[in-house]
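Exercise 7. Predict the joint structure of the components listed below.
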Amino acid sequence: MSLIVQKFGGSSVANAERVMNVARIVTDTYKEGNDVVVVVSAQGDTTDDLIEKAKEINPKASKREMDMLLTAGEQISISLLAMAIEKLGCPVVSLLGWQAGFHTNRAYGSARIESIKTERLQSELDKKKIVVVAGFQGINKSDDLTTLGRGGSDTSAVAIAAVLHADRCQIFTDVTGVFTADPRKIPNAKKLKDITYDEMLELATLGAQVLNNRSVEMAKKYNVELEVLSSLEREPGTIVKEAAKMEKMLIRGVTKDTDVARISVVGMKDIPGNAFRMFSKLASKGINIDVILQSVGRDGTKDISFTCAKDYADTAVEVLEDIFSPEGAKVSCDTTIAKVSIVGAGMQSHSGTASKMFGALYEAGINISMISTSEITVSVLIDKELADKAVEAVHKAFFG
Amino acid sequence: MSLIVQKFGGSSVANAERVMNVARIVTDTYKEGNDVVVVVSAQGDTTDDLIEKAKEINPKASKREMDMLLTAGEQISISLLAMAIEKLGCPVVSLLGWQAGFHTNRAYGSARIESIKTERLQSELDKKKIVVVAGFQGINKSDDLTTLGRGGSDTSAVAIAAVLHADRCQIFTDVTGVFTADPRKIPNAKKLKDITYDEMLELATLGAQVLNNRSVEMAKKYNVELEVLSSLEREPGTIVKEAAKMEKMLIRGVTKDTDVARISVVGMKDIPGNAFRMFSKLASKGINIDVILQSVGRDGTKDISFTCAKDYADTAVEVLEDIFSPEGAKVSCDTTIAKVSIVGAGMQSHSGTASKMFGALYEAGINISMISTSEITVSVLIDKELADKAVEAVHKAFFG
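Solution:
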């Protein structure tokens, strides 16, 4: 007998039919003799609908009241799923975040889990009940409801799996696992049997959008074995686990990210501290920087380029113009680019991985405008129009 | 400075515009220097929509999960109202039933309040915050959410007013107060300045549908001064308070109730215990009986007629046929009737009130098929088609 944590996102429980489908997956797992804890997000568009209602009344509502509003979403989905499980004849109880013992800090809208008090969870499991837990939410020291922020339900699931020492944490999505590339774009993309936490983290960061980063980090920290799988097609998914436990592969996947802007400051005076002034100011505005490239410009000036998420581009340009325009440098922004990356722990011990990628792009006639590498990734910036072509070419080079 | 409890029903907060309207009423009361606790129901059709969702998945869902589902409704409305109050610049906090200290028994779906722990409420009021409380809900000893059942938000409001010793509990509805008759039917119906708890109880029972009975009973028990008034039109409403404090009026109002069925058992053998067999069996099925009439029939038999709510009529007929058909009596059911009543504590000390009513009906050519009286009411059963005409005639006789 194992303890399995299963997490279902909003689209998996979007309507009555889908809720019944999830109930069947859950009860099948239970009937195989497992203890089951299910973590659920709000149904389909519920969260967006609630945000819309709030905006109509007060676009500047306090985060405390926004969390009070949004946590109603999972309350609806857990009770409906519990009713569906009741219908299938299995004992079940639904628990809100606070009932399941999720204690967080006070950061409404993006709270961090401080502890999970497992008494209630454990006592319901001891009664042989399937426990359906509201993801994404907790309670703070003032007994007020909080939300964990983006991807919070994944985090809830991994955190429960960690504290209960679950044998596996299954994250159900609308894809059947993690692929070597986006299967909607690259028809011969292959599903990975397994992948390391670090590789998964890079893939998530690079736009694969299968698993939330924070939850993968937590899974790595507490050594929770994750499985990414589909709630609609019943087949084994991709296991995310420690590197030691799996076969080595050169690279795991090819990804693209088009939500990226390149900001350039050209013609800065060559004085010390330019980079510090630039990035400390950007950090203070909460702007995350990705690839950075510094080069010597003409006439003893310097150029710095970097990439960030598109949403931050306007703010970044404003901030930089304030600093550098008075000094005669020019700030520009380019959003017609995409980042294409290869990810794989195997490349650490293989030379030639990067050059194989560059060769594939050269043969496809694609120009590279910036390059960045880490231990397990190589990323290039290219023309956004060519992103799909680039992924295809690179995928072919590595996976045939 | 006073402490005012204000309660708004679902239609008062049905959309963004109405929520803003309620926020203005609340903040105006607050700006006059009062402490304000606001009790809110779920928005408009939210509760019905949630029940529909549940039925689609499992029509026999457990009451525990139904309460988990339904309590999400008020959670949405309290946070939205709090956001609206924030927008108007007043300090505010929304509290769920359990946060406001509502401890109930375990009867999911129709829980009774056992105690209200006022620490949180009081501490928020001490911080000069407007406190918005989710009506209709509480928490039981297992830390599970419960609902108070029909009219629960009125009960929540009165209960808070009682424990906090509020100076007044204002129940906002879609009418401007309690009238001597339904103002939509009787154009010259008069709004009452005040009314006693007992009169209000009779009016509620008799179909006036302004205030929930349980809340009026609680207000009477704890001597909470109620005011029934409109959330849309700003004018003084009707005060519900102790008899000692108000002017005597002969009668307070004329009501009709068309949700009524008359069940008759004709030709019972005249043996002792018929009535006992009949009404104990009906009580065991949870059927509330209203007017009862027993008469001697032909040939040494007896007839018993009584009225009950239409919903129970089929069950009542079934139960009675089981008992009396084998003994040769006939059970019949008539739903073409209405009950018209006059209510007023003043009639206790006045003779002739009933006969004035009967005279008015006689002059209007309306036949009376059953009569029932209590200390402060006189009710008659008549043809349903003539109900409005009857109310008009009786109202004219007493109020001109």
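Discussion. Chain B touches chain A at residues 16, 19-20, 50, 53-54, 56-58, 60-62, 64-66, 68-69, 71-73, 75-76, 78-80, 82-84, 86-87, 93-94, 96, 99, 120, 143-145 (CB under 8 Å).
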